[in-house]
Amino acid sequence: MISPSTLAPAQEIRIEAVHRGFLYQHLYAAACLLNSGQTGAISVAVERDEDIEQVTPAGRTYIQVKTRAQAIMPADIKSALERFDALRQEHAQGRRPGSATFVVVVNRALGPTLADQVRTGQLAGDVEILWPGRLCKGPIGQLPPAWSGIEEAVSWCVDRAITVPLAMLAPDSLVWKLAGRVQAAAAGEAPHADHTFEITDLPSLFDQIIIQLQDFPAPPEQYRPQENEPQIDSSSRVRIVSGFSGAGKTAWASQAATFSSHNCAYFDCSETPGEALAVSLVRELAAKLAGAGPDGVRKILLPGATGVESLRQLDLYLKSEGLSPIVVLDNVHRISAESIKRMVDVTSALKFMLLAQPLGTLPEIEALLGLKREPLNGWGVDTVAAAAVGWECRGDAATMGRLKTLTAGLPLFVRSAATIAREDYDGRIDQMCDAVDALTNLTQTAQEVILAKVFDAFPLAARQTISVLSLSDIGLVPAEVNKLLHAALGMDEQAVAGVIRTLRAAGVVEVYGNKEIRLHDAIRVVGSQHLSGMPADVASLARNALKELMVESFERDRTTARFSQYARLLLTCGDVKMLVALIGEEMFHEMGVAAEIWHGLEVLVAKDGADPVQQYWALDGLVFSDMKLGYMDRVAPRLEAMERLIDSGALGEDEILSFLMKRMLHLSYLGDENGVQRAIHDLDSRLPDKPVHQRVFLYNAAAALYGLGSYKSAMKIVEQVIGATFAALGIRPNQIFRVKQAELWALINKPGLDQGDIKRLADALELKALVAGKLHVLAPFARIHAMKFYAIAGAIDSLIRVGQDLADEFVARHDFVGAREVLEQHVMPVVVGNQLLNRHLDVRAQYAVVLAYCGLYPEAEREMERLQVYAAGLAPKARMILAGQRQLVAEIKANPIPQLRPGGRSPAIQRSMPISSGVKIGRNEPCSCGSGKKFKKCRCGLAG
Hints:
Blueprint (H helix, E strand, L loop, with lengths): L8 H26 L1 H4 L3 E4 L5 E5 L2 E8 L7 H19 L6 E8 L5 H8 L7 E4 L7 H4 L8 H12 L9 H16 L9 E3 L3 H11 L25 E5 L6 H10 L5 E5 L8 H14 L3 H7 L6 H14 L5 E5 L6 H9 L5 E6 L5 H8 L4 E2 L5 H10 L6 H11 L3 H14 L4 H9 L8 H11 L3 H10 L8 H12 L3 H13 L3 E3 L5 E3 L1 H12 L3 H18 L6 H14 L2 H8 L11 H12 L5 H18 L5 H13 L5 H18 L2 H14 L4 H18 L2 H19 L11 H8 L6 H21 L6 H12 L2 H17 L3 H18 L3 H17 L3 H11 L8 H19 L50
Helix pairs in contact: 1-6, 1-7, 6-7, 10-11, 10-12, 13-14, 15-16, 19-23, 20-21, 20-22, 20-23, 21-24, 24-25, 25-26, 26-28, 27-28, 28-29, 28-30, 29-30, 30-31, 30-32, 31-32, 32-33, 32-35, 33-35, 35-36, 36-37, 37-38, 37-39, 38-39, 39-40, 39-41, 40-41
């Protein structure tokens, strides 16, 4: 989903709904404060006996706020009415003065039953319900109206804030400040620990809010939050937020201060000497944060007092007033650590938010204060895409992922790269990224200009280390870093440790929880440029060493990231033979390799004088990929080229068998039944007499028959393949029911295990599910079991595909909750965990549709809205399908009755279909090859 998407989308949805309800309630309380002049309120309390209590000279109005996704039912307000009964008794028995009025504010229209109760007067006479659009007269009409959602609530409050006399604060800032204060009061925090706002204090409250923001730089017109960005409000008194120039620190602080429940002030330290910082800070803050008049300021700014002494007096004054404001100090990396520590030591009420670049005195400040910096993580892929589209650029999800990796998602760097893409590459993000990767861009990005200065400030050993580490876009464990830097630069372990410490302190190297060391994405482009200017043997040694490290790691860590890194290294090193050998492995196509690998294969195929065997297997890999992805128009010319290579006599039997298999599948796609039968016989005459070859042949024959629409024949064969493969693995089908993945692995992990059989069994089970769907017969566990074996085999792409098909299967049975669980628990974590951005759009679009089927329309619409930014970068057909998904969500919302008949299938962004999958043919039945012979006597090879 693909933030990135969270690991638990269902939990995120529940949390969003809870906080949306609280925000609505806090905005309604803020509206009551803004509206107090009309209602004649004396005070407004929050979260005491009711959500909101408004006190007037005549009595009290108790307000309960309810937000729901559907029409309001009697059960929704039952508890409120019971509470109203108890409060009514309090007033009737004289324990509370004045009259009592009870109001329920709701964000949806009333359901038929409750509407009838209201119309017929079944509710108590002192109870009113306000719903969106209801017009009231009298005292109830003086209350803020009910709103349908947050956007409408904010709009109403802003309109009312405009009318506040002499308000210097922007109306929207005033609204959010009041909402923040309401939240603090609801929690019983000072200065409203009694949960109450006295109306006589409102002018002072507004004045405090007006003053505290005036020095903050204006946040961007459209602020885009960063991934997991920190909150400015915290129980910690001193914090550090660090990031390179361009990371958006000041914009974040300005935006966060707008929504803080604390008074906030901003001070830029960049032009202030360390020894003058305390006194400068006091003079700036005394009137603002203390709200003191001339007498108060004189008490703080004592004649002859040092800056530190005056700061202590300011802090004491704030403490006596019950205030603990936040002071945002920017560019503290330019100030001595001792100066910062002195200010922290003499204060207890003031809170400090220190903004710094990861250089200068920052490491010393961290050490002296015993703090650990908090990073700004940059924008997520969705946000990067939205920003790029806003700057007139385009690209699909994978391309926007490249842009995020290139820039680390840092706002200034993203904007600079997008500007160059728009002006130099017609808005094509992919072309801009290609140029930067190849070091052929003619316009420097802001990233290159800014980080070149950071890079140049390091000593030679550190610069060389950055350059070598720029080759790896994955994390390396310390032992791997030692081997890499020793091979490339001759550094020993002690030297490596020293350089890594220096780079880590500067924020250039990051160390993750599993102790993996990784170069910061943003500086990789600068390191790559420097590497290109180093002696050629250094780069060559580094690439070969990294390549060897990847091979060594596959036994313990065969992740998609490492596999893709290895494939790119083979291409860069010109190791065509190994790359082609790798492409011949089916698992290569499961690991989400980068697009540049396929481009490299295309170059190899077109190269004159290339080794014919290498050319053949490069074509074979391309054909496999094209069939898998549905690019069937590319297959025929590639098969013709493969046939020419075979006719040249330079190839062996393995190449011929591979070609015949691919041609059989292509003939099936073309609907050439006779051609498929000829291919089956051709293969039979050449097939080695080995069980594994027989199973592979039968599997592909079944897939070809499935493509022809010969579903019964395909089912018989695929079940035979399944049975034979279970036997080869030494287990029975009934042993895998309700067995977890680890237990299943223990069953099959025996001496002599052919790991390829694990994926072949998964392929056969998947094909059985597909064929069963066409025959309208049940194969309820085929896809579930296929997913288990794909997971064990590490066949990530197939696991995702079958998981999506399984979700569609649940939708067809109208089990929408089951479909949602499959996607949330088994598919999306794999996509996110392996950073498969080429599958991101597909899976998330399907998830949005499933959310709509589940009745979660706002969530479905928000997900589709996030995906819309990728539309311009899609191929026309994919763009049309995405639009269809968006329309489907709208149709489901308009008509919540399930759209599909049993056995139907929900539309989805086009996904690759398996070229795979199994059944046992009766020995006396006619063979499906068409020979007319009984199956047991036919020599076509289908009998195995």
